[in-house]
Design brief:
This protein is mainly β. The chain contains one helix and four strands. The termini are far apart.
Length: 66
């Protein structure tokens, strides 16, 4: 996932007229930031974000109860 900087007046990124059709085009935009996680919640700058990390701990043994 690539995070793009936004213009403070509009709250939108400064995109090319033709739009973005590939990850390479998005990576060419100045100020981009690559984020390794999916489903993020952005912070005030691209280096600050939150994401959910889920782990499961399970009992590997089956114990029969009477």
């Amino acid at each position: 996932m690539i995070a793009l900087p936004v213009v403070s007046e509009t709250g939108l990124p400064d995109l090319p007229e033709a739009g973005i059709e590939s990850a390479e085009q998005a990576a060419a935009i100045a100020g981009n930031f690559v984020v390794e996680q999916a489903s993020i919640v952005p912070g005030l700058d691209p280096a600050t974000y939150a994401y959910v990390k889920t782990t499961a701990h399970r009992n590997l043994f089956r114990i029969r109860l009477p």
